[in-house]
Write a structure and sequence with these properties.
Radius of gyration: 22 Å
Shape: flat
Order of helices and strands: HHHHHEHHEEHEE
Number of strands: 5
Oligomer: single chain
Helix content: 40-55%
Strand order of the largest sheet: 1-2-3-4-5
Length: 222
Amino acid sequence: MINGNANSKKELKEAVQKVIQELMDKVLKSVLQDDPFIKEKHHAEKPLYAALVPDEIFKGSHFERRFVTPFGKVWEKLAAAVASKRFGYAEIDHTISGIIKEERLRRITQILNELEHETLGQPRRRPNWEEELAFILEGEGEEIPFSVVCDVYAEDIKNERKYAFEIKAPLPNSDQTKVSKEKLLKLYCMEGPKLRLFLSFLITLTGKRKTIVGVSPFDGST
């Protein structure tokens, strides 16, 4: 829930509308000016398709591709716009740097592989965040500089809290969720400047209108 007075709600609405307006302007410029659907070109390049399917179908497909592709990044931009108005600062594709002990990195890889594949005839590991994290944090070894790029990063200026978000579309591929979990584990295991970091893995199930958000605090100084 976004708190605030009428003016802040108006600013938030305007920030969201701005992101959407910029997307639509970009799409329309691409479709109408930069790369419009030209019937003659379509017939010359794909004569069989043109003979079997009405031009209107391919014209719609032409628009859809130019709409869907740039829309992929809009969710992060919308989240950053909301977080910026709510907390004071936010950006997408933010890099967080620190150091991670070598054995922790190895254990992260081990956990992710066991979650994805059977190991030596044993069934795949069942997810258990607390057990996995406890096992990983026991790792020691050489300290290795490391950086993690999060989808959205925000800072609550008033309460001095920092947030990192991984945002994925409905029904993401297994490799996408694996990468996101790897990022979260590395952020939890990272040592560096003292900070208060909140990690959130968000999945929106549009069909059921349900949002699952997991948030856990950790002290970045470890």
